[in-house]
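Researcher: I'd like a candidate sequence for this fold, 337 residues long. If you have to choose between options at a position, lean toward the conservative one.
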């Protein structure tokens, strides 16, 4: 066999083995109790409210829409231009019971603000660079936007004014705000995760990784931070001291979403490969592991990115809700601690 053909054969052989191993592991991992389809052709962006009751998505072919998750029901369609579907690569959502219930949708540099109750537009603002990530505060009055030009902006959603700029030296991939709207965290391709005061705009703490930061989160009270970088273990750290609380070692799994439980005892993580983990914060150990399911046999792993995860309380107790890039909301059974 020619050398080039032999190399090609070995490449495809390894690829097939990896695919079979991935399928086997996924088949052995508990899947969802229920799958609800919210977009036939998948989604570019999506976020769940903190209580897991609402989902905001940017669909591949149908623009933005707001959904309830139980039951799955479309509430509003949101696009930036009448008669066309917007390409929304970042979306943000306040809790439905916020003082100013608010959603934001982003197309490149254009930010639209929406009222969660009426579905009506509350404003349309332009920011100075393409938005890579965005999060709305728990009161619905402000947002943090991570930009492609190496900074993050603290935006007043009432008028679109920037309150503070938070500096990095590369794209800001992920942002979060604590539930008291006092602190924000930014994660960048400059390998740094930084926590900022929303009172004066100053940096409180920083954690340095060895690779590009892909996901960050703050606990409800802003005292704990989570940051994850490509091809290395994730870290839970103390914001005041900057010291490591625990290390979450999931191999080379790329973490794409994270959310702390309100009591800080556990952390939910979602991955690029469609895995959802419930983590013990004190030890960094996995308490439960689920796998998002494909909607067809031909669906690629890349189309099962976990965009957002949340706890959701209901009549039957708590469940885990995940927004997945294949256009589904998937619900998972939470076992006792």
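Model: Candidate sequence:
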């Amino acid at each position: 066999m020619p050398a080039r053909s032999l190399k090609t054969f070995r490449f495809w052989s390894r690829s097939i083995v990896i695919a079979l191993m991935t399928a086997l592991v996924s088949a052995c991992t508990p899947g969802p109790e229920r799958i609800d389809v919210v977009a036939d052709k998948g989604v570019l962006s999506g976020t769940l409210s903190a209580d897991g009751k609402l989902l905001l998505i940017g669909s591949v072919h149908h623009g933005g829409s707001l959904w309830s998750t139980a039951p799955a029901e479309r509430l509003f369609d949101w696009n930036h231009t009448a008669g066309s579907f917007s390409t929304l690569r970042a979306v943000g959502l306040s809790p439905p019971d916020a003082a100013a219930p608010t959603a934001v949708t982003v197309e490149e540099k254009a930010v639209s603000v929406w009222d969660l109750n009426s579905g009506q537009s509350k404003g349309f603002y332009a920011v100075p660079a393409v938005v890579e990530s965005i999060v709305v505060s728990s009161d619905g009055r402000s947002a943090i936007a991570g930009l492609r030009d190496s900074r993050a902006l603290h935006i007043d959603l009432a008028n679109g004014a920037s309150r503070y700029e938070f500096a990095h030296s590369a794209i800001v991939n992920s942002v979060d705000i604590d539930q008291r709207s006092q602190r924000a965290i930014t994660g960048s391709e400059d390998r740094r995760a930084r926590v900022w005061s929303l009172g004066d705009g100053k940096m409180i703490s920083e954690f340095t990784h060895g690779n590009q930061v892909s996901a960050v989160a703050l606990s409800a009270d802003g005292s704990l931070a989570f940051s994850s970088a490509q091809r290395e273990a994730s870290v839970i750290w103390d914001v005041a001291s900057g010291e490591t609380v625990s290390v979450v070692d999931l191999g080379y799994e790329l973490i794409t979403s994270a959310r702390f439980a309100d009591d800080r005892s556990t952390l939910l993580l979602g991955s690029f490969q469609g895995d959802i983990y419930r983590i013990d914060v004190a030890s960094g150990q996995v308490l439960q592991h689920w796998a998002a399911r494909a909607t067809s046999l031909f669906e690629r792993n890349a189309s099962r990115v976990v965009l957002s995860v949340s706890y959701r309380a209901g009549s039957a107790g708590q469940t885990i809700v995940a927004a997945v890039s294949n256009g589904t909301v998937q619900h998972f059974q939470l076992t006792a601690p």
